[in-house]
# Entry
Amino acid sequence: MRLVHSDFRKGEVKIQVDNADDIWYLSTVIDKGDHIKGKTVRKIKYGEGEKQKSERKKIFLEIKAEKVDFEAKANSLRILGTVVQAPETVPLGTHHSFDIEEGTSITIIKHDWLDFQRKRIEEAAKQQSLKILVVVHDREEAYFALLKKFGYEMLTILKGEVAKKAMDDSRPKNFYQEIISVMKEYDSKHNFESIIVASPSFWKEELVKNLADESLKKKIVFATCSSCDEKAIDEVLKRPEVDMVLKKDRVAKEMKLVEELLVEIAKDGLCAYGLKEVEEAVNAGAVNTLLLTDRFMQDKREKGEYDSIESLMKLVEQNKGEVHIISSEHDGGKKLDGLGGIGAVLRYKIK
# Structure
């Protein structure tokens, strides 16, 4: 994300979306009631009656957001609202939507920027996505995933054949070569900083025996997983072997935050989860870290209940606590969703 201009005192930030991850960041920052302005395409009508014509034109206008729709799978963000500033050809008060995509430039105006929202914008502007490929394999299957800030994107799944005879290792070697070939193909396209290769048992060592490309070898970090399937990717992200690679990545940070909450829950320690418990803890000033999933927030927006959630976040920050939005697209977010989509690590017990 490129931060073109910012004046948080006036509540105004202008940004340009550079990549898909920026779209997810904005989905956690833009709220109902915010003003969004920028260039957008709209159908403009001319004339009256039978002579009326219309054409799609790019114009500059400003809307007051009424709804924020984010679809993680499609990585699409649409902001719907009413027009408050526009050329004479567009009536004020009519509805319009901004479709946010790579290359979009918009200005976001808020009455009050929360601390975590400012940090989100600044973080997205400072950090580029880590270019990391995750490969989970055994001698029969291989899963390739591109790590993203809101989770991961499954690139492809390879199916191999198991050798018919224990002494015949030609088929596994051929499958390893196929895995290596796909790794090279994706690396040439994305120029990865790191490639995390994980497998149950010793299969990753067999893969390396077939890898002659030294430049590719230097990018590989090995990890262990208990199975070879898509769930193993979430498992790999928690492994200590790859902690150094992932330490700057938000997915790993989010999963660590959720794991800290789960540890407290397991020992009946300093924790609260579910909206009712968390509300009590926030009102008591006991919350040190508040966690909410983006799915939970979207659900509250759709039900018209978001204002009370925003008040909770504000109160946590006023009491010197931290607020973190967790993506529902990875295992950590799914676990938090299973707890009601909201949880907190406390300073002290309130019960």
About this structure: Confidence is low (pLDDT under 50) at residues 163-167. Residues 252-346 form a domain with the 60s Ribosomal Protein L30; Chain: A; fold (CATH 3.30.1330.30).
